């Protein structure tokens, strides 16, 4: 097995200490501004991987991946093609990142040298000797993990890990904010769409708002279609018909 070790959260009682002075504080503040200035969760993650390479000493590549219970992996953001598929099993006998399962119970995992003890994993197959994996999100079903990679062994020391922990705290907050904004935006769009569909049914079926909404809900259940998708279909059909001839049972 590759030489590696898991860093427990208890080792970070001194997290507020800045290893390289106030320059780090300024860099993290600027990174936080960039992260919170993004519009969507995807934008936040793409910004985060770029910033990770700038902030973490010796980092050459970075990616964000989702790990589901049972071992299913999915890449969400990456700095370049080298690490786009780094989390995923590859042909030729390579196995996935050997320690990511431990991230369910510990927030940080470092791999010192993926080629130690013969390698044979995805990282060594890509020529990536070191990895620093930091948990961003976790629930019962999935983990979201930011990983920095380097081509030299033992690239990430305790200072790099501290910086990574501080940085991912900012990423997590920004990602949560972007997710809430996206959900609120979608809720507003859905409400407007359902309102339009309800108005169309009121006019076409000569019923009140409650009856139109009930008709919409029943049609959604009957056709096993999400309410917003059915509403969009009604609105689109009404637009295509020039506002005439739309009916819904």
Structure description:
With 249 residues, this protein is α+β, with helices and mostly antiparallel strands. Helix content is 46%, strand content 17%. It has 7 helices and 6 strands. The chain has helices spanning 22-36, 41-55, 81-84, 122-125, 158-205, 209-223, 227-240, and strands spanning 3-7, 61-68, 73-78, 108-113, 130-138, 142-150. Strands 1-4-5-6-2-3 form a 6-stranded antiparallel sheet. Strand 5 (130-138) and strand 6 (142-150) form a beta hairpin. Helix 1 (22-36) runs parallel beside helix 5, helix 2 (41-55) packs antiparallel against helix 5 and helix 5 (158-205) crosses helix 7 (227-240). The longest helix has 48 residues, at 158-205. It is elongated and about 75 Å long.
Looking at how many chains there are and whether they match, the oligomeric state comes to single chain
Number of strand segments: 6
Radius of gyration: 24 Å
Backbone shape:
elongated
Biggest sheet strand order reads 1-4-5-6-2-3
Proportion of residues in helical segments? 40-55%
Low-confidence stretches: 1-19, 91-96, 244-249
Q: For the record, give the distance between the C-alpha atoms at the N and C termini, rounded to a whole number.
A: 63 Å
- Beta-sheet strand percentage? 15-25%
Per DSSP, the total helix count is 7
| Biggest sheet record | 6 strands, antiparallel
Elements, N to C (H/E): EHHEEHEHEEHHH
Structural class: alpha+beta
Q: What average pLDDT do the residues reach? A: 82
């Amino acid at each position: 097995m590759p030489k590696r070790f898991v860093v427990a959260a208890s080792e970070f009682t001194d997290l507020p200490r800045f290893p390289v002075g106030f320059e780090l504080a300024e860099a993290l503040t600027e990174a936080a501004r960039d992260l919170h200035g993004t519009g969507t969760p995807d934008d936040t993650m793409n910004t985060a991987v770029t910033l990770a390479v700038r902030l973490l000493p010796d980092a050459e590549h970075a990616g964000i991946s989702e790990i589901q219970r049972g071992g299913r992996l999915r890449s969400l953001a990456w700095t370049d093609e080298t690490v786009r598929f780094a989390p995923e099993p590859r042909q030729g006998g390579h196995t996935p990142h050997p320690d990511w399962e431990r991230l369910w119970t510990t927030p940080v995992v470092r791999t010192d040298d993926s080629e130690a003890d013969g390698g044979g994993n995805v990282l060594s197959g890509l020529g990536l000797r070191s990895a620093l994996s930091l948990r961003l999100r976790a629930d019962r079903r999935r983990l979201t993990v930011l990983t920095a990679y380097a081509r030299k062994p033992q690239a990430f020391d305790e200072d790099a890990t501290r910086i990574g922990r501080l940085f991912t705290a900012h990423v997590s907050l920004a990602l949560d904010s972007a997710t809430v904004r996206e959900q609120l935006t979608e809720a507003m769009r859905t409400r407007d769409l359902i309102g339009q569909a309800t108005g169309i049914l009121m006019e076409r079926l000569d019923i009140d708002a409650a009856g139109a909404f009930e008709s919409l809900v029943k049609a959604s259940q009957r056709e096993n279609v999400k309410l917003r998708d059915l509403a969009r279909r009604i609105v689109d059909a009404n637009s295509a018909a020039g506002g005439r001839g739309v009916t819904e049972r």
